[in-house]
Amino acid sequence: MAKVMGNILAHGLRGKIGQFLVFRIMRGKTFVSLAAPKPDKKKETPRQRHTRDTFREASRRAKTLLLDPEKKQYYAERAKTLKLPNAYTAAVREIIQILNR
Which ranges of 1-101 would DSSP assign to H, the alpha helix? Predict the structure, then answer.
């Protein structure tokens, strides 16, 4: 993945251009990479399906959980402690650990 530096045209650009290039913004910096091919769901293994389903469920629970201001504050502090980008990531991480027990 290449980091875009000093390019006024590409700075802040997000999304896919054509079929090959993807621009992303991560932690305030613009990156460009080759687009990954779409996964073939027919070749999905049971373990991959389990991982995808677990993440979907954790994401759903985290969004609901963070509607409560007290819990959102708790996960925001937890994110800082764990050096994670935000409360949502901290909540998803904790929920995935619970679901995988």
Answer: 46-65, 69-82, 87-99
Give the single-character DSSP code of 36. P
CA distance readout (Å), 75 to 55, 59, 72, 98: 18, 14, 5, 15
- Domain layout of the chain by residue ranges: 2-34, 42-99
Express each pLDDT in 52-72 by its tens digit.
999 999 999 999 999 999 999
pTM: 0.62
Give, for 38, the enclosing helix (H) or strand (E): none
Instruction: Please report the sign of the dihedral spanned by the C-alpha atoms of residue 22, residue 26, residue 30, residue 33.
Output: negative
- d(CA 30, CA 33) in angstroms, rounded, equals 10
